[in-house]
Amino acid sequence: xxxxxxxxxxxxxxxxxxxxxxxxxxxxxxxxxxxxxxxxxxxxxxxxxxxxxxxxxxxxxxxxxxxxxxxxxxxxxxxxxxxxxxxxxxxxxxxxxxxxxxxxxxxxxxxxxxxxxxxxxxxxxxxxxxxxxxxxxxxxxxxxxxxxxxxxxxxxxxxxxxxxxxxxxxxxxxxxxxxxxxxxxxxxxxxxxxxxxxxxxxxxxxxxxxxxxxxxxxxxxxxxxxxxxxxxxxxxxxxxxxxxxxxxxxxxxxxxxxxxxxxxxxxxxxxxxxxxxxx
Length: 279
What we know:
- The protein is an alpha/beta fold.
- The protein has one domain: Rossmann fold.
- It is built from seven helices and 15 strands.
- The protein has helices at residues 60-72, 88-97, 115-127, 182-186, 204-207, 212-218, 230-242; strands at residues 15-16, 21-23, 29-31, 48-49, 75-82, 103-112, 136-142, 147-152, 174-180, 195-198, 221-226, 246-251, 255-259, 262-266, 269-274.
- Strands 8-9-7-6-5-10-11-15-12 form a nine-stranded mixed β-sheet, with helices on both faces.
- Strand 2 and strand 3 form a beta hairpin.
């Protein structure tokens, strides 16, 4: 298979296995303990690895979106990941930026509501050469309105990455977290975001539409994982079209889509838009 041409702009990095981590072609090290299904996958400590390019699955398109944003950036690369989990895409974006001579620095923001995942972000940053204190690692949830919100407590954080504000119900343990609106998130940065990665488990439909004008002014490229229904996926895509964004990719959720790289099963929907104000 011919990979997307964006991969040609980045070199493969060799890594020495720790016995506890998984590695990708950029050299990003991810603890196998972050997902229970991975615990038997790490290579023996000391083994020198040269990972291949990513497999073609639904996450292959996150790779394309992230690397394309990095390749376009100049000066400072700015990226936010909302519903970050352990912030894999931020770390990959930062490591990719390290390979680009046109990029002199990075500004990163991770937003995550689950307490365990939030702490994993700081660990994941540190284990990949990023000081979490030099970036914005926020314990909270993206929302259309500010204030405080209830978020469900996750019993199995190494399995469940799909918790949502919508899952809070009577009798379900929850915590109070701060809500961050899109304007508040953008205000952390010194300039427009090169890339905004959004995977907030159906809160995208409440968070993004009220902020379309702010997104148009402050974001160059946005990727959204969509949830719940095809109608909501299509409606959100329509809002971006109506606001003048350019659709780059649009794959519906819960179905097999034909892509330039073969048939791919998408559990979440996938939307990628570019802002013509910047290109």
